Amino acid sequence: MTFVHRVAADSRYLLLSFPLALISFSLIVTGLAFGLGSMVAFIGLPALAATALVARRFADVERAALPGVLDAPMERPDYAEAPVSAGWFRRVMNPLASGQAVMDLLHAIIAFPVAVVGFVVTVTWWAGAIAGLMSPLYAWFLADLTDSQSLPSLLGLGDSPVLAVVFNMAAGALFAVTALPVLRGAALTKAAIAQALLTRPSYPQRTMTTRTPATGLY
């Protein structure tokens, strides 16, 4: 994968993870609070089961995005199915019957702060790179509109508009050059948490070979 494709894939993953994590976190925390708070009532358990089902759907979305970041196939854990002869209550509570439900709920809570950090890092690096490299197009216009001092002048390097443009472009180039390791690290951190909580190892399938006895004259 080329530099541009890698940065684009990691940026897309980090930017889209924030709204998904925000919605997931809000729904899961609300569902858990409501379900646990009304545990003594009949509605508490079905509310927890519905929350686990919602967490499973968000986990499926996360699992679908992982191969693009980790460059490896991800296996979906097995979820227990309700028996054919199960009654309506057993079917309603079935999302809680699988141990993976706890991992899905835990991921919805843990992934939110990680997604926030990844989103902020991504926006900061893209804004720094674009604003810095494009500074020759707008720096002169802003210098005539405002009386604020540029960063080079604050550092005692001079108050020349040319120096300010060169400084901004150098900062933008630094953001652009370091975008790959920084965004890659942020994407791998979030993806590693999701992989540990939401997937199981993918083993290559082995084909059974039958060995025929050798024949010959002795």
TrEMBL record:
Residues 13-198 form the Putative sensor domain. This is Putative sensor domain-containing protein. It comes from Nonomuraea glycinis. Keywords: Membrane, Transmembrane, Transmembrane helix. The chain crosses the membrane at residues 12-34, 40-59, 108-141, 161-183. It holds the Pfam family Sensor.
